[in-house]
Amino acid sequence: MIRFTRVTKSYPRTGTAVNDVSLLVNKGEFVFLTGASGAGKTTLLRMVYMDERPSSGEVRVSGTSSVNAGPRDVAKLRRKLGIVFQDFRLLEHRTVEQNVSFALEVIGAPSAVIGGKVNRVLTQVGLAAKGRAFPSELSGGEQQRVAIARALVNDPFALIADEPTGNLDDRATRGVFQLLREINAAGTAIMMATHNLELIRRQEFRTIEMARGQIVFDSAEPTATAKRGP
Amino acid sequence: MRPIREAFETFQRAPLLSALSVTTIAFSLFALGLFGLVALNIREALERLEDRVEIRAFVAEGTAPEDVAQAASDIASFPEVLSAQLLSQEQALRRAQTELGEFRDVFEGAVLPGSIDLRLRPGQRDPATVKRVAERVKAYSFIDDIRYGEEWIEKLYRLRNIAGIAGLILGLVFAVVSVIIIGATIRMTVLARAKEISIMRLVGATDGYIRRPFLVEGFAKGVMGGLLALVLTWVAQSLINKYVIQAIFFDVRVAVLGLLFGALIGLAGSAVSVGRHLRRV
Description:
The complex is a heterodimer of chains A (230) and B (281).
Chain A: E1 2-11, E2 15-25, E3 30-34, H1 41-48, E4 56-61, E5 64-65, H2 71-78, E6 81-85, H3 96-105, H4 111-124, H5 140-152, E7 158-162, H6 170-185, E8 189-193, H7 197-201, E9 206-211, E10 214-218
Parallel strand pairs in A: 3-8, 3-9, 6-7, 7-8
Antiparallel strand pairs in A: 1-2, 1-4, 4-5, 9-10
Chain B: H1 2-13, H2 15-50, E1 54-59, H3 65-76, E2 81-87, H4 89-100, E3 115-120, H5 127-138, E4 143-147, H6 150-192, H7 194-202, H8 207-243, H9 252-280
Antiparallel strand pairs in B: 1-3, 1-4, 2-3
Helix pairs in contact in B: 1-2, 1-8, 2-6, 2-8, 6-8, 6-9, 8-9
């Protein structure tokens, strides 16, 4: 469902960000993506939602191939993915409810179903009571929950999270992570980039470590990727 | 409905910026309108001058009046000819005296040649046609001489062509400038909503969906700018009319065309601006 086949991504100025990566993420899997800053995690995730295209190789996500997907195909693919960032990316002049319903409105969902869906995901992320608040009135952890609710409202098959706990304190991190676990338990695959080794150590999920654009460790195939540096 | 509502919201959210955009568009269209008005009035003046284009064929003395009358009716049936009027020697003298006013005594006892005076149909008054008709008329044996102000007809036409070309070039330049200005003002709204646009894209909105409200906004600004420009041009024309010279204004058809042109410029400006932004992010 998310398959990287010998993917390399190079930039004219900064060089190679991802180097010859092959990877398969299965349905409903939870994958941690870790590694130092600049290791290529974010570039890898951006290629999943086709914000970047590989310089060579192919990324195939739920039947959409990076080789021939047009803008319309990419838009359609993103309706099946949820994307969450470290900086939440909420619209400040819209309420929590409006931020979440925005994701449905822009893909032309019928207004009759929007209210119900928004309530359901806000309940799921524990913010049912704060629907009318503005993002600036919420804590960091709550804002990230709103972002997750927005990512979930389209019932995505996978959630792509780039350092979702990077801006949060320990308590909020635990809360958000617990939420992600629940989402995964309900069947949504999750690819999460994180620096938080503590978080990874405590879990039994698949962990992929990147360095200099390559996968140096994959807990799903520990022997095949034993390139780990000293 | 959504694109219209969102375009309207932009106006509400940033009324000053929107007013500024409309005013800028209005002024660039106003400049275009003023030039159009000048071109229109030059053309109108030239047409009035053209009305006076006349071929005068002088009849040799002693020609039988029936021959001249026959020739005049033949000439009147040329497709280019609007009218062919016969002027006897006496009539020629009377006209000369009337035209000269206080110097009428000069013609006391003079003999002036009779003539056939031709007027050409509108659209047939260009130098080449005038010359062709003159040559045909000259072919009659009893026509002594023919006058048709060859030189000034050519000058008149050259002036008209220059005015037309200058109008076209300046019109195009103003149109391009307007597109750039509108593009820049729409770009400000695009940038103000850059975050919103990036989120729209992340959740799977198509480019068409993102683009539409901006196109509506550009269209609306173009129409409003066009209306304002029309009012400004009308005021300018009224003032010129009152204090400088008598000038005419665009007819309804041209005014509507001007508005449509404003709308088109607004659309083009925003399409360029949003398209560029969407390609970059």
